[in-house]
UniProtKB/TrEMBL annotation, chain B:
<protein>
    <submittedName>
        <fullName>Anti-anti-sigma factor</fullName>
    </submittedName>
</protein>
<dbReference type="InterPro" id="IPR036513">
    <property type="entry name" value="STAS_dom_sf"/>
</dbReference>
<feature type="domain" description="STAS">
    <location>
        <begin position="14"/>
        <end position="95"/>
    </location>
</feature>
<dbReference type="Pfam" id="PF01740">
    <property type="entry name" value="STAS"/>
</dbReference>
<dbReference type="InterPro" id="IPR002645">
    <property type="entry name" value="STAS_dom"/>
</dbReference>
Length: 1373, 95
């Protein structure tokens, strides 16, 4: 019995069972043995308790999961001792099971177990179900348990982590963040009875920043921990360890800790865990003190939880501080910018005032000294020239500061652009010519005016011309204007030295000076072209440059026609063409100064040439990776150079396709992409990136040559994060790149947190798209189902659905759940699924629709957990209940077995369930859920398999791919039980467990039913023995109907007694009362009456003796009895009645005669009083009916009415056999709702049938005829009828002798003759075979059959293997 | 053992041969009957008035001698003689 498990079984065997109430195992009842076998063979954690002390047993799984150090001490001890610490919880449940016989079910119940040396917080899902002994009484209980401590605690911790991450605002201040954290931690007092958050201060001390579970005033929560005391022994919390980045466990001993809160527990923590709040790449921010739940060990899970909490706090602090720092920096930058603008503005004004005060007098002096002293004149000119230069520079700076401050006062008027431009150009003609260059001005008149601010436009054209002149030594300068679609296009081209490709991008950069090999002057502030670009931009136009080194440069300006692109309040009507303003002069003057023939070469430059004002950008804090996608190699190189220079790690690709591949391979922190690219353009690239969940978060900065809002909106709609129009300043690019990278880092932090959170969920997590394809999963998902994230997405039908062919129903369940998921989007259900390795799981899945905030698409987010154990537990309970019900309803063993088999068949939806009992018979007896075949009908291999199965140890399931089998002890012998699953379907370990549980239950049930069966059979045999004779003489029929089923006896009886003189005693009696009590009285009276009749065949004497006998038996008083002695030869009946209803004699002519003579008192009323006796003769073919009053007595009806009715019933059945007649009477007289009193009925028809058997010899013919003739006379048959019967029977007998037993003379021939009122029936049967009549050879034999047929009304000759029977009857004329 | 049957030969007043049978005729004693009938080859009257039973074996004996046997019988045997058709072949007196 203990062999099913070596380990626990071995220890069980060592228990001194004799000392327990259960006694030595050899004496254990079958039921206990079965229960222990099931327990030990199960791989599920179980324990059971049995007997008066609830003696404890458990299996290996329970020992491993739950029992801990109590093993093996617990085995054989009272359960109340084993589980003393939780007896208050489980004791009442066990009592309930034992007293109500009903199973309990508890889910995740908290129990404090002391199995590891301390009270431990544990959770268990379990059911207690009753165990019965061999009599069916509940004597113990079985507990199937799954420990859920890990799940419950894991879920609780996850909830806290989830809540911590649920903060909707991305950034908040440190204080707000800590307050939010405090709120969340305070909601989990079980894992965190209290927490303290300390932050390190610059001076090395630590400041209390947050508490949960206790107030800040608590002695264990000092507001500051001084720096110097940090390592001292008296420091309350060891700040030094977390400062080094280490965690430390602190024992909570000392006065400060005496009043610690207990959280939700009975007792406060005894230890706390101090964890650093780590900073990436820096010293910890501070530390978290977490009071530890004393009812849980500080295992890696607990420690990990506290560290995750600390990690979250640290991340929060990092976020808050970084946000604060950024905010500060942005404010500083803005302030700097404001200061710069103000500075430029101020300084310009400050310059202009003294300049004006210089230039005014210089003009005067020049006029005054004109033509006087040439030296004075030259010096004045120099002052004037440089004054103009300075003025121009100052004005330009002022323009910039105006533009930046948005205070540029523009006045756009419709202008003939060609004319204005040509006029401006002409100002430079002399200077150009003087430089030896050709000057071509090709300004054809445009059809529409262009809105210009004249002053600004002058600066644009003059700057460009000045620039061209400066860098051109040979060739020409060309100015053109023309219309191109809706733009005016102005070009200023030169044949100068050109600009190298590297420098081109920075051409328009403010304060950037192009390093050139040669120029007419090294002068230059680096703001000319930048100002040009700004001014053109103000006109809604663009400027671009084409340049080839050594060939020249061409600037192209495009200005839109019309005025819609300009601010309405800056528009002005056309003014008559004004002359070129004074602005031109400084440009020309300056240009002339560069020429060798210029007024002077000696002026030293007034403005320093080192324009080393660097663009205000800085590199990234952490080296971020940027991917550049641009088809233009120059652009790629340029961008690469800029970004590398700023400290980024850069990868460059030539088009969208390559970019996509690169991002998928390793996502960068930012993608900078051109819009226009071959193969896959920038907008498509963005779309592609956004559709894939893995690449969606990568930020993209688009570069485009197309300006304007529409273009940028298109880019942003496609999902780009930022948009930059070419040409752009390097600084602008760097600023945008930096902003996007930082934003992406901030986002990525949340994404990482989310991923970590989702992954650490114990419940499986998944996201489905609208079509039901699974697009995201977590680690638990993979743990439960075996399908990993590598193969995402999983489109429907998902690979974990059960196979549609082999398990259609399970597949269907999955399909229905899926329909709900895709259709309704929300719901919860439990479905079967298949693990990747093929085993069956049940999962409880819940799902809800969610709007993806990024894409706006509807997705479905779901979680599920593995409820396989619960599912099977419920299935087991209900299967056991169903089986119990079946077994309890069965009244006989075969019925119980068939019922149980069909229960198993339903449970597994099996094709067939078959049981073969190897009992004492030659062949095993089969039973099945449906019609059972017999053994020989089974295929040979099945028979062999069943025989093999039967030889296995009981209750150990075996399976193959289509079936499962198990051996069970049947009361008749070992029984092999075979479940034919019908198709290839997994029969899992759960199924095996269930099968052995059910089989064990079945074995017990069968024993019980068998015992009941035996008792019942015994009782029935006893009852029948009391009731009446086992064999009735021929001619009699009896019926008995007890009033109280299931008893088959009552107070009534009938009896026939073969008396020594050949006559027959007939008794019908009725004791007072009914049921078992009356039956015992009846039994004694019947026996006594029988004995008395045998002694003295006088009815009156018998009843008088019975009077005395009955007087001595309690309950026998007033018994009524009809007692008669019948001579069957003559029909003479002597009778006496002790208060019994009269017998009914129905004559063959239909008249009724009541046997109402010989009447006297019921038994024992007057013992000793003589009783009368009467006599009558039963005529031939009359029927005698004796009965008890239950047959005829009805409420509110005179007795004689019932007696008449009975007489009519006898007459109505006059042609039936006496046995059929008995049935007819019982049916005919039965009240609507059945007899409510005992009924005994005895019928005799006179004469009794003739029955004789004689050897097949011709010498027997005469004696047989003689006997038949005598019987016929008793029947008072008319002579001719009698003669006919004699001839017909004679011929039949002669045939039997002559043919039937030709080769075996002397074999028996049987004759039976039976008369009813109007009919006589004759049967002659032999055991041989007749020859087919051959009239020629045996003319007289053929004649014999003819005679029979002529004499009788009906002759049937049936010839078969067992003999020939001639059945004849004829009416009695 | 054969069924009791007494066969008494005699003559009728007209001199015809007469055989008087008393008892029952069945397969056990038809031989005796045949022998008695065959003591003469001429016409013979068989008196069956004292016979209570005659079966088909007996009838067989009579059929084979129907051309020279006349029968005297009581109504008790009439059905057997009539149904078998013997009454049509031979003269039956006393029915």
């Amino acid at each position: 019995m203990f062999a099913a498990d070596v380990e626990v079984g071995g220890d069980l065997a060592l228990v001194d069972w004799a000392a327990t109430p259960l006694g030595p195992p050899g004496e254990w009842p079958q039921s206990l043995q079965t229960a222990v076998s099931i327990l030990l063979s199960s791989r599920f954690p179980m324990w059971m308790a049995w007997g008066p002390d609830l003696t404890f047993f458990c299996n290996a799984a329970y020992r491993r999961d739950t029992l801990g150090q109590k093993y093996p001490w617990a085995l054989g001890r009272p359960a109340s001792e084993v589980w003393a610490e939780i007896w208050n919880d489980i004791g009442p449940r066990i009592d309930a099971v034992l007293t109500t016989d009903r199973a309990t079910w508890d889910e995740a119940l908290l129990l404090f177990l002391e199995r590891s040396g301390y009270a431990e917080e544990t959770y268990h899902t379990f059911s207690y179900s009753p165990l019965r002994d061999d009599t069916g009484a509940v004597v113990g209980m079985l507990c199937v348990v799954s420990e859920e401590t890990e799940r419950v605690i894991g879920e609780r911790r996850m909830a806290t982590l989830r809540d911590l991450g649920s903060d909707p605002s991305v950034v908040r201040t440190e204080q707000e963040m800590l307050a939010f954290v405090g709120q969340q931690l305070g909601r989990n007092p079980r894992d965190l009875p209290f927490t303290l958050t300390y932050l390190f201060q610059p001076d090395g001390s630590a400041r209390l920043a947050g508490t949960t579970g206790l107030t800040a005033a608590h002695p264990a929560a000092p507001v500051t921990l001084p720096a110097d005391a940090a390592d001292a022994g008296d420091a309350l919390w060891p700040a030094a360890a977390p400062a080094r980045g280490e965690s430390v466990v602190v024992s909570l001993e000392g006065t400060a800790f005496t009043t610690l809160p207990a959280g939700e527990w009975p007792k406060p923590p005894t230890r706390a865990l101090v964890v650093p709040l780590l900073q990436q790449g820096g010293d910890p921010y501070g530390f978290l003190v977490a009071g530890l739940n004393r009812y849980r060990p500080l295992d890696p899970g607990y420690r990990g939880f506290v560290e995750l909490v600390a990690g979250h706090i640290a991340a929060g602090i990092a976020g808050a501080r970084s946000y604060q720092a950024q905010q500060r920096r942005a404010e500083e930058l803005a302030e700097l910018d404001r200061a710069k603008t103000t500075f430029f503005s101020n300084i310009s004004h400050e310059f202009r005032t003294p300049l004006t005060l210089i230039m005014g007098p210089v003009e005067d002096l020049r006029a005054r000294f004109d033509g006087t002293d040439p030296r004075v004149r030259e010096e004045l000119d120099a002052i004037h020239r440089n004054g103009l230069r300075l003025g121009k520079l100052v004005n330009s700076l002022l323009d910039f500061s105006r533009i930046e401050a948005g205070r540029m006062q523009a006045r756009y008027e419709p202008v003939d652009l060609a004319a204005v431009t040509a006029e401006l150009a002409s100002v430079f003609r002399s200077a150009v010519n003087k430089a030896g260059l050709a000057f071509e001005v090709d300004c054809a008149r445009l059809d529409e005016p262009v809105h210009l601010d004249r002053g600004m436009w002058e600066k644009v054209v003059l700057n460009l011309l000045s620039n061209a002149l400066k860098f051109t030594f040979d060739g020409s300068i060309t100015v053109t204007t023309r219309a191109e679609n809706d733009h005016a296009v102005i070009t200023v081209a030169d044949t100068g030295i050109g600009v190298s490709a590297e420098e081109m991008p920075r051409l328009f950069e403010r304060f950037h000076r192009i390093e050139t090999a040669r120029a007419r002057s090294d002068e230059g502030s680096g703001i000319g072209l930048a100002l040009v670009k700004e001014l053109v931009g103000l006109h809604g136009g663009t400027i671009s440059a084409d340049s080839t080194v050594g060939k020249g440069t061409c600037f192209t300006i495009r200005l839109p026609f019309g005025s819609e692109h300009l601010p309405a309040d800056a528009l002005a009507p056309a003014v008559s063409a004004a002359a070129v303003s004074a602005t031109a002069e400084p440009y020309v003057q300056e240009a002339l100064r560069w020429l060798p023939t210029g007024p002077s070469d000696t002026d030293p430059p007034m403005v320093p040439t080192s324009d080393d004002v660097a663009p205000h950008t800085s590199g990234p804090v952490v080296p971020a990776r940027v991917l550049i996608a641009d088809d233009n190699a120059d652009m790629r190189e340029y961008l690469t150079r800029i970004l590398r220079g700023a400290g980024y790690r850069v990868e460059a690709v030539a088009d969208g396709h390559e970019a996509l591949r690169a991002v998928r391979a390793d996502a960068p922190d930012l993608v900078v992409s051109d819009v226009m690219m071959p193969r896959l353009d920038g907008l498509s690239l963005v779309r592609e990136l956004r559709t894939d969940a893995r690449t969606a978060p990568v930020p993209v900065l688009l570069l485009s040559a197309r300006a304007g809002q529409e273009a940028s909106i298109e880019g942003l709609e496609a999902g780009a994060d930022d948009y930059l129009v070419k040409p752009f300043a390097a600084a602008e690019l760097l600023a945008r790149v930096r902003a996007n990278v930082e934003l992406s880092h901030l986002r990525a932090h949340h994404a990482r947190w989310r991923t970590a959170l989702v992954d650490s969920l114990q419940e499986a997590f998944f996201v489905c798209d609208e079509d039901g394809a699974v697009i995201e999963i977590n680690a638990a998902f993979t743990d439960i189902l075996g399908y990993g994230p590598g193969e995402l997405p999983y489109p429907p039908v998902h690979p974990w659905w059960p196979d549609a062919d082999t398990d259609r129903e399970a597949h269907q369940q999955c399909a229905e759940a899926f329909d709900r998921l895709v259709g309704e989007g929300h719901g919860r259900c439990t479905v079967p699924v298949t693990h990747r390795d093929g085993h069956r799981l049940w999962i409880d899945v819940a799902f809800n629709p969610v709007q993806d905030p990024d894409t706006g698409h509807r997705v479905i987010v779901g979680t599920f957990r593995d409820v396989t154990a619960e599912h099977y537990s419920v299935q087991r309970d209900s299967a056991l209940a169903a089986l119990s019900l079946r077994l309890s309803q069965a009244t006989a063993l075969p019925e119980a077995l068939t019922g149980a088999l069909s229960e198993l068949k339903n449970l597994w939806r099996a094709r067939q369930v078959l049981a073969a009992v190897f009992g004492h018979r030659a062949e095993p007896v089969l039973a099945a859920a449906d019609a059972a075949p017999n053994w020989q009908e089974l295929p040979a291999d099945r028979r062999e398999a069943l025989v093999a199965l039967c030889e296995r140890p009981p209750l150990t399931p075996v399976t193959d791919h289509t079936s499962a089998g198990i051996t069970v002890e049947h009361p008749d012998g070992p029984m092999a039980l075979w479940v034919d699953l019908g198709q290839s379907r997994p029969f899992t370990d759960e199924d095996k467990l269930l099968l052995s549980l059910l089989a064990g239950h079945l074995a017990q049930g069968l024993v019980r039913v068998h015992q009941i069966d035996q008792q019942r059979e015994t009782a029935i045999a006893l009852q029948r023995a009391i009731l009446g004779p086992a064999h009735l003489p021929d001619g009699f029929a009896v019926r008995y109907e007890p009033a109280t089923p299931p008893l088959e006896v009552g107070g009534d009886w009938y009896d026939t007694v073969a008396l020594p003189d050949g006559r027959t005693g007939i008794v019908v009696g009725d004791c007072v009362g009914r049921g078992l009590e009356a039956a015992t009285v009846m039994g004694q009276l019947r026996s006594a009456c029988r004995a008395l009749l045998l002694q003295d065949a006088s009815p009156a004497q018998t009843l008088m003796a019975l009077d005395h006998f009955a007087a001595g038996i309690p309950g026998a008083l007033c018994t009524t009895v009809f007692c008669g002695v019948l001579d069957q030869a003559t029909g003479c009946l002597t009778y006496s009645s002790a208060g019994h209803p009269p017998g009914i004699l129905a004559h063959r002519d239909g008249t009724i005669h009541l046997l109402d003579d010989g009447r006297s008192l019921p038994l024992a009323v007057r013992p000793g009083r003589p009783r009368p006796e009467a006599e009558c003769t039963i005529p031939a073919r009359a029927t005698l009916l004796l009965y008890t009053d239950g047959l005829v007595e009805r409420r509110r009806r005179p007795l004689n009415e019932g007696i008449d009715q009975a007489g009519e019933a006898v007459h109505a059945g006059r042609n039936a056999t006496v046995d059929d007649l008995a049935t007819q009477i019982m049916t005919r007289l039965a009240p609507e709702n059945g007899y409510d009193d005992d009924v005994a009925l005895l019928l005799y028809r006179h004469p009794a049938p003739l029955e004789m058997t004689f050897p097949a010899e011709s010498s027997q013919l005469a004696p047989v005829r003689k006997a038949l003739r005598t019987w016929l006379e008793r029947c008072q048959m008319p002579p001719q009828t009698a003669q006919n019967v004699l001839v017909a029977v004679g011929e039949a007998c002669a045939n039997a002798i002559e043919h039937g037993h030709r080769h075996a003379p002397g074999d028996p021939v049987r004759l039976r003759a039976e008369a009813s009122v109007n009919d006589v029936r004759l049967i002659v049967a032999d055991t041989g075979r007749w020859k087919t009549p051959q009239p020629d050879a045996n003319a007289h034999r053929g004649r014999g059959v003819t005679l029979m047929k002529a004499m009788m009304q009906q002759v049937t000759i049936t010839s078969g293997a067992t003999g020939t029977t001639v059945d004849m009857h004829t009416r009695i004329a | 053992m054969t069924t009791p049957l007494t066969l008494t030969p005699g003559r009728r007043p007209d001199g015809t041969m007469l055989l008087t049978a008393v008892g029952e005729i069945d397969m056990t004693n038809t031989e005796a009957l045949a022998d008695a009938l065959d003591t003469t080859s001429g016409p013979i009257v068989l008196d069956l008035t004292g016979v209570g039973y005659l079966d088909s074996a007996g009838l067989n004996v009579l059929f084979t001698r129907a051309d020279r046997v006349e029968l005297v019988a009581t109504p008790l045997l009439a059905p057997v003689l009539t149904i078998s058709g013997l009454a049509d072949l031979t003269t039956v007196h006393g029915l």
